[in-house]
Design goal:
Shape: globular
Number of strands: 6
Low-confidence stretches: none
Radius of gyration: 18 Å
Helix content: 40-55%
Structural class: alpha/beta
Distance between the termini: 14 Å
Number of helices: 7
Order of helices and strands: EHHEHEHEHHEEH
Strand content: 5-15%
Strand order of the largest sheet: 3-4-2-1-5-6
Oligomer: single chain
Largest sheet: 6 strands, parallel
Length: about 240
């Protein structure tokens, strides 16, 4: 089979931090910290490979239901990540976009992510999308409300609403759809992540837990993608 190009847009559900911590008899917060270490190398490699967009599921709208100590640890790690990594990301021409309801974040975290977006908005390299306080169904409902309000104001008619217009009202507007979705830890579900954008994505479910997802594992997923036969509903001749 002919090997195809790398994906333009990779999305990753970084799953398994808690199980990794349990396996190593550590607190869950330390599992998340180890996961951030794994994340650094994946971001750098994606940028070096010339991948256009990398979307990471960092914190879902449902994650607020977790234990208070774990949520607090995740919020603290969020601040630490943007404090320690923003200079290098900016120097490497990475453009940061937050996917999700920023207004629902604690003030310090909201300010940190907004500063990162503003600082890197003109960068033309890797589009690094970090989903925080994100839910795919909520995103679609938001887009529907925006278009309904436009229709009520007479700016559009219901007949104007099509897939292209809908995509312009999503957090990922202007980006290509997801080509490859990776979920670590062996779980095989989307968990409300980029539901619309993953319509024709190729899925990869490695059993490795996220803190152990290294560059070798990443390249295995990318190589598998390049061997896939993508038909988008049609047939190859």
């Amino acid at each position: 089979m002919t090997e195809r190009a790398l994906p333009r847009h990779v999305a990753i559900i970084m799953d398994g931090n808690g199980r990794w911590a349990k396996q190593h008899k550590l607190q869950v917060a330390l599992g998340h910290r180890k996961g951030v270490e794994a994340l650094r190398s994946i971001i750098r490699e994606s940028s070096d490979l010339g991948i256009e967009a990398l979307s990471l599921y960092a914190f879902s709208t449902e994650n607020w239901k977790r234990e208070k100590t774990e949520v607090e640890a995740l919020m603290a790690l969020l601040l630490e990540f943007f404090s320690s990594e923003i200079d290098e990301l900016h120097e490497n021409n990475v453009c940061i976009r937050i996917l999700g309801d920023k207004a629902g974040l604690p003030p310090k975290q909201r300010e940190a992510v907004e500063r990162a977006e503003i600082r890197t908005q003109a960068n033309t390299g890797l589009k690094l999308n970090i989903a925080i306080n994100y839910g795919g169904r909520a995103e679609l409902a938001m887009a529907a409300r925006e278009m309904a309000e436009m229709a009520l104001r007479g700016e559009i008619s219901p007949d104007d609403i099509d897939e292209e217009m809908l995509s312009r009202h999503l957090y990922t507007r202007g980006l290509p759809d997801v080509d490859l979705l990776i979920r670590t830890s062996g779980e095989m579900r989307l968990s409300n992540f980029l539901l619309y954008q993953c319509a024709y994505a190729e899925f990869d479910f490695p059993s490795v837990l996220w803190p152990d997802f290294d560059l070798e594992a990443y390249h295995q997923a990318l190589d598998a993608f390049r061997r896939r036969d993508r038909r988008f509903g049609g047939r190859n001749k």
